[in-house]
């Protein structure tokens, strides 16, 4: 299993003989609702679109998971697996094959299984997706949830080899953590007993501007999380990826 971090929530996952582009933001700026004055993310230069992608996987319909400019330039013949929130975005940009998964539903492509699980709340009524990806040949597995909301239903799928989730908190005054790490990541490690955990949602070669950045505050560091995890004697290894650098996270594919 090999992972390449592409900034923000974006990853290239290579497992079960497939190349999965997860929550891709590769080109242009990251803006929510056409309000760059509120929040805007930019990187020094666009990322190259990875070659030979087999599948696009979207956990949410928000711009930092279903990025409009990126979805415009990707191959529309690529199958898209997504949350119901992501389905409308994929349809808008003309993707030919879309598999929308409700919680508990499974999509299989050859020996790759993708299971949708309960993820992050978005607004008062929408609960988006997390995913468990499994190589049905080796039984190696990966769990991804980009905002740090983990359902206790995950316990039935333990152990899971690799976890990708936030390891620090991002907080807004009065609202509290909008992205949860630290304690929630410790909890999911206790449940799933992963060999490896990697941070997502914060970091990478990105600069953020806008009014919201005056109030959005990080709480904790990856190193602090690693030290907290060590006190649990869990055996889980923390890997902080370098953007654009492929990492073999497990000794076996």
Discrete helix count = 4
Specify the biggest β-sheet.
7 strands, mixed
Tell me the number of strands.
Answer: 20
Mean pLDDT: 91
What percent of residues adopt helix (DSSP H or I)?
10-25%
CATH topological fold name: Metallo-beta-lactamase, Chain A
Distance between the termini: 5 Å
The string of secondary-structure elements, in order, is EEEEEEHEHEEEEEEEEHEEEHEE
Structural class: alpha/beta
Identify the CATH homologous superfamily: Ribonuclease Z/Hydroxyacylglutathione hydrolase-like
Q: What's the arrangement of strands in the largest beta sheet?
A: 8-7-6-3-2-1-20
Protein architecture, described:
- The structure is a single chain.
- About 40% of the residues are buried.
- This protein has about 250 residues and is α/β, with parallel strands linked by helices.
- The protein has a seven-stranded mixed β-sheet with strand order 8-7-6-3-2-1-20, covered by helices on one side. Strands 9-10-11-12-13-16-19 form a seven-stranded mixed β-sheet, with no helix packed on it.
- It has one domain (about 1-30, about 35-240): Ribonuclease Z/Hydroxyacylglutathione hydrolase-like (Metallo-beta-lactamase, Chain A).
- It is built from four helices and 20 strands.
- The radius of gyration is 17 Å and the shape is globular.
- It starts with a strand and ends in a 5-residue tail after the last strand.
